[in-house]
Automatic annotation (TrEMBL):
Keywords: Carbohydrate metabolism, Polysaccharide degradation, Signal. Residues 115-232 form the Glycoside hydrolase family domain. Belongs to the glycosyl hydrolase 9 (cellulase E) family. GO terms for biological process: polysaccharide catabolic process. This is Cellulase-like Ig domain-containing protein. It comes from the Bacteria. Residues 25-96 form the Cellulase Ig-like domain. Pfam families: CelD_N (PF02927), Glyco_hydro_9 (PF00759). Residues 1-19 form the signal peptide.
Length: 233
């Protein structure tokens, strides 16, 4: 019995330390110097200490920030806080640090070019989500499952509904999200035509085709939308 009590006694500090672990949610893409800069901090215990904003590479403390409790209902069994470091505009790489728990966030940047190239990363993600021919997998999906039920055609009539993008990991597709994504890509090109490159062809395969990739991707969505609306009505 004494041995068990000793084990429990030694275990208590470990459990206590685990309960004090602090987690961070911060924009890993980064912030422009003039941006509003906020992050979410949460833990299963109340956070009583300030959060340090650490500047790299010398790991100096750029600021100490008091976490502000978020009073908007219960989210699981965590305590949530907001921290605001908008006043920091010096360019460089940073991370957030909670000294009591020795917990840190992922690194992020504050800089005028923080968003440089992010548009190409987003287009790469869209190509990964393509339905029909998928350039990431170099495979064609949904070759036999386009069947119509409870409509004007006989049940199990084959309908070619390939195209567009899988909405998530469940591989479903929706007109509302497909049209929304397509519209934003067209708007982005209209506003910032010089920001988009041409590194893949219309199928998403390596090699330029003389058309900005954002328009190739938008057309992939438009073709699917028109396929599902073959008549004006």
């Amino acid at each position: 019995m004494k041995q068990i009590s000793l084990y429990l006694f030694l275990l208590c500090p470990i459990l206590s330390l685990k309960a004090q672990e602090v987690f961070f949610s911060v924009n890993q893409v980064g912030f422009h110097p003039s941006d509003t800069k906020k992050a979410i901090v949460f833990s299963k215990g109340k956070i009583k200490n300030n959060i340090h904003l650490i500047h790299l590479p010398d790991s100096s403390s750029a600021d100490r920030i008091k976490p502000v409790p978020i009073e908007s209902g219960v989210w699981g069994d965590f305590f949530y806080y907001s921290i605001d470091f908008t006043q920091i505009s010096k360019e460089g790489r940073y991370f957030l640090w909670h000294s009591a728990s020795r917990s840190s966030s992922e690194k992020f940047e504050i800089g005028s070019d923080s968003y440089a190239g992010i548009q190409e990363d987003l287009l790469e993600f869209m190509r990964q989500q393509r339905c029909g021919y998928n350039p990431t997998m170099d495979m064609v999906c949904h070759q036999e499952d386009g069947r119509s039920f409870f409509g004007p055609m006989p049940d199990s009539t084959y309908v070619d509904a390939s195209g567009g993008w899988h909405d998530a990991g469940d591989q479903l597709k929706y007109l509302i999200t497909g049209s929304y994504a397509t519209g934003h890509m067209l708007m982005a090109y209209e506003l910032f035509p010089d920001r988009f490159g041409d590194i893949v062809n219309a199928l998403g395969q390596p090699g330029p085709n003389g058309i900005p990739d954002v328009l190739d991707e938008a057309k992939w969505g438009l073709d699917w939308l028109l396929k599902l609306h073959p008549a004006p009505d």
